[in-house]
Amino acid sequence: MTQLIKIISSDFHNIRLDQAATALFEDYSRSQIQRWIEAGNLLINGESLRPKDKVQEGDELSLDPILENRVSWEAEDIPLNIHHEEDEFLIINKPYGLVMHPGAGCNNGTLANALAFHYPQLIQLPRCGIVHRLDKDTSGVFIMAKKRESAQLLTSLFRLRKVHKTYLAICHGELNKNSGEWNDDLIRYDGEKKIIEKAKTLYKVLDKNSEASLVELKPITGRKHQLRKQLYAVGQPIFGDVKYKLSNSFKGINKNLMLHSYQIRFIANDIKHTYTALLPDYFRKLLKTKRLRFLDLK
Fold first, then answer.
1. Sign of torsion, CA 264 174 286 227?
2. Which of 58, 215, 233, 294 has the highest CB neighbour number within 10 Å of its CB?
3. Per-residue confidence of the chain (298 residues) as pLDDT tens digits?
4. Would you identify the CATH topology of the domain 161-298?
5. According to CATH, what is the number of the domain 3-63?
């Protein structure tokens, strides 16, 4: 049902539409309000404006809310590829397309929902024992805590950078140097706030030709989309990356992101752990198509 509110207070004069609407329609979050403005569900005097446009005293706001489904952490029977299991933790080979946990844009059908089904005791842990993340479209080895103590330990190891991860990527073109280190200032936004983060990655080219390169990537920091952004920055975006791509670099060769979490290493309670996730079939297929050789890493 459409909701109408007329601005009668001078307190809202000449402030942003999304700020005014969030204050006036108190039942909804600012991010939800912004989405409705951009979708044309929130109008000013019958017109569609931008979130940053200013409102004036006497303006009439009309909102036709499309209520979103609430996120659910309920158990769902989603298959898991269990690579290894201990009393304290679980190693999973995450497939392409699986989201970590429910949130904005994905209400259910996530790894957390699957864990709640297969390991009901994990519901008692924060985020069902998830202590780090992989992008939805990144495949590969992933570690889960099964107990509160192991969750705390693994979280500490990640924070102290004592968990060492190795990724494999197939990227467009030929990297100039066969190995090296990238140190970048990556930019992200929290609303309108610009945030600059230091990002460090060690890289090594395992094979390459004029069309493509197979690259081993070892991130030292853990920034969002770090590896994807850094390869894009040097002009060699990852195959299948529709977000960080050159104008002619995505023509349907493969719809999968060619970024795979290949190996994870750490020491816990004086025991060395190393776990490796086999390459997906679609990854191996593109290696063959691009004439790239791969020998399993040690």
1. positive
2. 215
3. 678 887 766 667 788 888 888 878 766 777 778 888 888 888 888 888 888 888 888 888 888 877 555 567 788 999 999 999 999 999 999 999 888 888 766 678 889 999 999 999 998 888 889 999 898 899 999 999 999 999 999 999 998 999 999 999 999 999 989 999 999 999 877 666 788 999 999 999 999 999 999 999 999 998 989 999 999 999 999 999 888 877 655 555 567 899 999 999 999 889 999 999 999 999 999 999 999 998 765 5
4. Pseudouridine synthase (3.30.2350)
5. 3.10.290.10
The answer to whether residues 286 and 258 touch, using CB atoms and an 8 Å cutoff, is yes
Strands 193-208 and 139-145: unpaired
In CATH terms, are 69-160 and 161-298 the same topology? Answer: yes
CATH architecture type of domain 69-160: 2-Layer Sandwich (3.30)
Is there a catalytic annotation at residue 135?
yes
Q: The pTM is what?
A: 0.74
d(CA 15, CA 61): 14
